[in-house]
């Protein structure tokens, strides 16, 4: 995965081995999120800048090199990869930050996997991936199985 900084924003693109598919961060606000969902980018999740919460809806966005609709996959507790969302209609966007990755993809998903505990008292780690028919561009994100409790 390559990272670049532009105007104080960390950007990344993942190029898949053996395939002309690249996934990059998508600009927030340009996707077509589902009603009442929170919009986050793949790079925000992979870098730990965004944390998912179980049972909440999200519009996860990325930019890709292909106009083929991609899917979002999550790895279950049994290790099996499950397709949980698909980008219905990728949108050609001049605001996607990488030359050669102009297609804005949106994956609307209500989180239904809890991941595995990373450390005591913190969020769990959840394996996610984006790809056309199978998980290719893999990343890990933080997820809270339930809302965190705070004490004074």
Describe this protein's structure:
The N terminus is likely disordered. Strand 7 and strand 8 form a beta hairpin. The strands form two sheets. Strands 1, 2, 3, 4, 6, 9 and 10 form a seven-stranded mixed sheet that branches. The protein has 152 residues and is mainly beta. The radius of gyration is 15 Å and the shape is globular. The chain is built from one helix and 13 strands, in the order E-E-E-E-H-E-E-E-E-E-E-E-E-E. The longest helix has 6 residues. The protein has one domain. The termini are far apart.
Provide a compact summary of the structure:
The protein has 152 residues and is mainly β. The protein contains one helix and 13 strands, in the order ββββαβββββββββ.
Let me know the largest β-sheet: 7 strands, mixed
Q: Number of helical runs?
A: 1
Q: What percentage of amino acids are in beta strands?
A: over 45%
* Outline type: globular
Layout of secondary structure:
Elements: E1 2-6, E2 9-15, E3 22-24, E4 38-41, H1 42-47, E5 51-53, E6 57-64, E7 71-75, E8 81-86, E9 91-92, E10 103-110, E11 116-117, E12 124-131, E13 137-144
Parallel strand pairs: 4-6, 5-13
Antiparallel strand pairs: 1-2, 2-3, 3-6, 6-10, 7-8, 7-12, 9-10, 11-12, 12-13
